[in-house]
Design brief:
single chain, 7 helices, two-stranded antiparallel ribbon, mainly alpha, Sufe protein. Chain: A, about 50% helix, about 140 residues
Length: about 140
């Protein structure tokens, strides 16, 4: 019997799966609260929280550390605000495990498709765009 190799799910497919899962939660505020479950998966240990990792353009302090492991991206993050921590953590989780070229090219659709753009302030959305820009820049360096 031949064993089939494991196929890595594309970043676009992972994002669609994430959005579908979040969309099962009907209330958009509850959906937003559910993002806190991603914080533990992507937490940045205190000893790695360096000023060089702070993302400019965020009202809360946000740290993002990116690494390339076995040819795939890995992102860990931390934020001062619990809500921001959940938002940033879902981004770091989404882009972790992707090929660098995918992480550079695939834009996050979950803010719009999950209805978060209707309830998040423009300032918070700008901060998320800054985090995405940091992830994109790191991924481009590894491509």
């Amino acid at each position: 019997m031949m064993i089939q190799p494991m196929h890595r799910m594309s970043l676009a497919a992972r994002q669609n799966e994430l959005i579908e899962g979040l969309s099962l939660i009907e209330n958009v505020h509850e959906r937003l609260a559910a993002l806190t479950s991603y914080v533990a998966k992507t937490r940045l240990p205190a000893e790695l929280k360096d000023d060089a990792l702070i993302v400019p353009g965020c009202v809360s302090r946000v740290w993002v550390l990116g690494e390339l492991q076995d040819g795939l991206t890995r992102f860990r993050c931390e934020a001062d605000s619990p809500m921001v921590a959940g938002l940033v953590a879902v981004l770091c989780d989404l882009y972790s495990g992707a090929l660098p070229a995918e992480a550079a090219a695939v834009e996050p659709e979950l803010w719009i498709r999950c209805g978060f753009t209707r309830i998040l302030s423009p300032t918070r959305l700008n901060g998320l765009a800054a985090v995405r820009a940091r992830i994109r820049t790191l991924a481009q360096q590894w491509s």
